[in-house]
Each structure stands twice: as C-alpha cells, then as structure tokens.
Write a structure and sequence with these properties.
This protein is about 85% helix and about 0% strand. It is mainly α and about 120 residues long.
Amino acid sequence: MAISQELSFPLVDSQKILRNEKECDLDRRELELRRQQDALKDQRIANLEKELDLAKQEIVIKDKIGEIKDMEVVATRRALADMTQVADRAIKLAETAKPKNVWETWGPLGIIAIIIVTIASVL
C-alpha cells in the first residue's frame, strides 16, 4: 500500500523558501564569479612578476652593454695612443732604411772595378 503524502506549507513559508533558494543561487553565482576574479587576479600577478623579472634582466643586459661600450672606448683610446707611437716608429724606420741613390750604392763598386781594370791593364 502506497502512502501518498503531500507536503503543504503555508504561503508565507513557501515564499521564504523560494526567496532563500533564489538568494542561495545568487550567492553561488557570486561565489563562482569571485573565484574566477581571484583566478584572473592571480594570473595578472604572475604576469606582472614575469614582467618584473624580464625588466630586471633587461637592466642587467643594458648594464653589460654599457660596460662593453666603455671597454671599447678605452680600447680605442689605447689603440689611438699606440698608433702615434707606431706611426713615429714607422717614420723613423722609413727614414733610416731609405733606399740609397744609385751613386751611393754602385759608386764604391765602380771605383773598385776601375782599380781592378787599371791593374789588369798594367799587368
């Protein structure tokens, strides 16, 4: 035998139950939205932290580039200072190792040749 039992509530109680159910549903939706917002905020924070790390790395790289440029300037200055010394040495070597004119080179040999020919003709 089946017992059928109807639940009946007074109208005021039914309205309260319905209102509570709607409020609970709204609270659940709001809670879900807040969870999504928190997840988005967490993602934004993570992205900002990554950006900060990248900015720090960029600063380190720029500092190293600056150091390299400074080293390049110092090396260029040294090279230019050395170039004056090298140029001075090259000029001195060029002046001392100048090729002699023909008379300076062949003159003594010519005199020796004339002496030899004179001696040979006398003998």
